[in-house]
Here is the input.
Amino acid sequence: MRIALDVDGVLADVIHSWLSYNNKTRTVILKSDISEWDFWKKYNINKFDFYKELSTCWKSWKDIPPTESKISYASKELSKIGTVDIVTAREDSTHDDVKNWLKMHDIVFKNYVGVAEGTEKAKLDYDVFIDDSPINAESMLAQEKSVILYDQPWNTAFPDPRAKRIYELTKAIDVIEEINHS
Here is the structure.
């Protein structure tokens, strides 16, 4: 079993850091205010500025919290049922920061795979993808890939039941075992 594990929004709560960054200079946005993937449009934030600011947040990688307290344990347990690769879409300049963050949080994985755009993940050869992006999930499902959607405010309206929703990473183990037996 080959497992593609996303970073931003699944392991790392980088939106928490971005909100702190944003709220110093713009209208205050709370995580609970975010209800869609491209929420930045609603606040008249340029897409390229948003992604550049996310990259800036990664420069302070030590300050980015994990999405949940047992994230290291979850990655260890996932690695017992398959090969876990980190598969992440990002700007090249942040890869070292992300790798440092993964090491600091003792995340277990075999390979680190970076792609330029999230939808490119669907072209990769994995048995299951764990991601938080509804856009990535849609492209993965279109390629008939198995998707586990890590619950976040920006994906709660994702309508396709083929993507199995989890609320904590350890729950992916049950879903993967179910996929293995079907």
In short: The chain has a mean pLDDT of 95. The radius of gyration is 16 Å. The chain has two domains: 2-13+65-180, 14-63. The CA atoms of residues 64 and 149 lie 21 Å apart.
